[in-house]
Amino acid sequence: MPDEPTALAAFTYELGLLKRIRRAGWWHAGVRDPESIAKHSLRAAQIAALLAAAEGANPERAAFLTLWHDTQETRTGDIPHTAAKYMSKPEPREITADQTAALPSTSRDLARSAVDEYEARQTIEAKCAKDADKLEMLFQAVEYLDTGVERVAGWIDSDSKGLATETARRIAEAAVTLSRWRGETVKTPLTEWRPSSWPCTQASPQRRRFARGISYVRSTALVRRTASTVRRPTTASGLPDSGTGTSPVQAQQELRAAERAPLAASG
Q1: For the whole model, what pTM was predicted?
Q2: Considering its fold, how many domains does the chain have in total?
């Protein structure tokens, strides 16, 4: 068995996997680059602290429980709900016991007690932690919707239900009436929500300006590429020749640099 510092270091490396493992369910919604488990856990812990403070509970404990609620996924990955029918759900307490078996007793007990309290849902802090987990997914679904991913209705609907605290329920209602952090009010209430009614799925002035900007960048690059090709005779290999003794490779590099210029300017 490794010594205590080695065991702690090894477990820390394992926890680092949470920064790289993606939340697989979002792929089913059409998100090409979903958030990682670590990103989800961070904001969920912050939400848990806010919920606990509003509910008169211990914010630090609620946030701490939330930080541990998905650590078992270093061993299992993020399992989407569509897989539940075909496999038994892993027991989080058992996984945590395996993960922490080599740790010093104080560290081992700390992690195991946090997972056990979270899974039991008996304390107000554990209830705030679970509500925070659901609320974070709700916020993320709305944010993905705001970027044009429309197949998130199931997440918005399910994550707004089954919340244990009154504060969480009120936050869920408010979350679906705002457009991200800017605080722009959405007129369609949660009970009537549907993708086609969400303002961000329509052509907003900001989206139209963005589309025009992309069109300009692309058209400018095309004009420069065409002009460069027309002005320069080609060599035997078919590459543009500057006519000043520039090698074909150098000419091709100059052409690529010209094509990248409008993209760099737009950044």
Answers
A1: 0.68
A2: 2
